[in-house]
Amino acid sequence: MPIRQATTPSHKAGRVPKLSERNILAAAASGVHDFISQHGVDPQQVLLDAGVEERLLGNPRVALDLGSYVDMMELAAARTGNDNFGLRFGLQFKPEMLGLIGGIAVASPSLGGAVANLAELFPYHQQATETRLIRDGPFLRLEYRILDGRILERRQDAELTLGMFVNVFRHCLGPHWAPEEVHCEHLKPEGWREHERAFDAPVHFAQRTNAVIFRDLDLSRRMPQGNLHRLGQLRDELIGVAGGVGAVSFLDKVKGEIRSHLPAEASGIAAIADAMGVPRWTFQRRLADHGLNFSDLVDLVRRELAAIYIRQPHVAVTEIAFALGYSELSALSRAFRRWYGASPQQLRSMSVAHPLSTGDHPNDDFAQPWPYL
Q: How many whole angstroms separate alpha carbon 182 and alpha carbon 3?
């Protein structure tokens, strides 16, 4: 049974979300209406501006567009003034609230089974994403990231998802369980100490992917409501409802891989082609078919991210340079002057003097010329 897709109203001129193969089951937004309302903000306006229909929230068998869902979380954080909105929402999000994928985790016979099922099946719940369970010496890593490079601002979704993952462990091992580390792909937020208190673990930012790192202990512990028969039913239903793990266009996936590899030393064309699973010559040919070369695409990704990062006044410009893969601050400064005709410091001053209004959309096309020049 293919996923039933929601139709979304036209909420802003030129911004009508279209469902494609990057959907998320609406159960992921269970309770978000009330959570926004608790902050004294009109949730209906947030949902309207993000292109999410209120009547669909919490329905475990209806899909929302992933981009609209991520936008909703970013808008909620901006409108409520709660920069850690996604973190707080995710940590109060019990597994049973998460619809089919949450039910699968709860019904797994053991904690190890629950984690393995999350890694395997989460992309059916939230398409166009990658989840992996990887062994790293005495540790295991439960990794998560969005593959679609069009979704630029996605911090709230990442922290929300990590909070949900941690709550699966705490469902089995108790509320005081803590991972060894937590990794986030976004830059360090101003209120980062709340993250370490919430996870009771060191949290590292500007990483290649989001991840919960934990020791290979207690994985044989039985889940309190483990039920193999129900697990099989829920697994079949999730796969049937979703119909697949989604698809991302070649260029959007390349942009996503470039973003993930930018801070690393191995961010050249060979590394990205390998991450895409294609030979380098095939990778170059496919870019050429789109009238692009690799360096142009890297420059575009850097420009899009730079416009987001420079609006975060607590982040040092040197940190932005590293996050974008520049070895020297002077290289970032030259890039800013080429993109916008101004230095990073000048652009930052302008963004502070002219901040985005609460009506502006967080994922507007930042590749366009800087609006204040």
A: 32
